[in-house]
Amino acid sequence: MTRIISGRAGGRPLATPSGQGTRPTSDRVREALFSRLEHLDVLVGAHVLDLYAGSGALGLEAASRGAANVLLVEADRGAAKVTKQNAAALGIPGITVRQAQVARVLASPPTQPYTLVFSDPPYELSEDALATDLQLLDEHGWLTPDALVVVERSARTPQPRWPADWELEGERRYGETAVWFAGPLHPDGVA
């Protein structure tokens, strides 16, 4: 069973979409990931973008832990429906679900830039498509200058190809799952 781990909705169950297109992040990986994000002090008041949201577990966990607002983007109609149901069941304000292709959403400027981005695409998404997503984030104003982008993939895949003005800030491996942290270089040359 997938659940919210901590925060105001801690312990609440989340429905998961059926089918092969989604792969919920395990509770173990989410717990480790959010422990790191809390250590970095990037959750409270964050503007969160959750790409390839699936059940919405990552973005909803961020909302539970104090994010100011969360936009969950999911292309699959069934998964987006489950994500909307999960968001409604939690009753946390500031959560929006958008059913659309990630690349289509990222091709236009956002209504606001985001401080924290999760990208947990299906493992079958190509490295080129992921690199395009990251480039669109960079080119269309989706990120604040101090944004943190978290990419979750299979541990068998290579490190994502980051935009030229980004820097890798860390990497963690949890069994078959790899998580990379990156973001734009700050004006002083430090990520």
Automatic annotation (TrEMBL):
One of its GO terms (molecular function) is nucleic acid binding. Keywords: Methyltransferase, Transferase. It comes from the Bacteria. Its EC number is 2.1.1.171. Transmembrane segments: none annotated. It is an enzyme of class 2 (transferase). The keyword Nucleus does not apply. The keyword Methyltransferase applies. It holds the Pfam family Cons_hypoth95. This is 16S rRNA (Guanine(966)-N(2))-methyltransferase RsmD. The lineage of its organism: Bacteria, Bacillati, Actinomycetota, Actinomycetes, Micrococcales. The gene is rsmD.
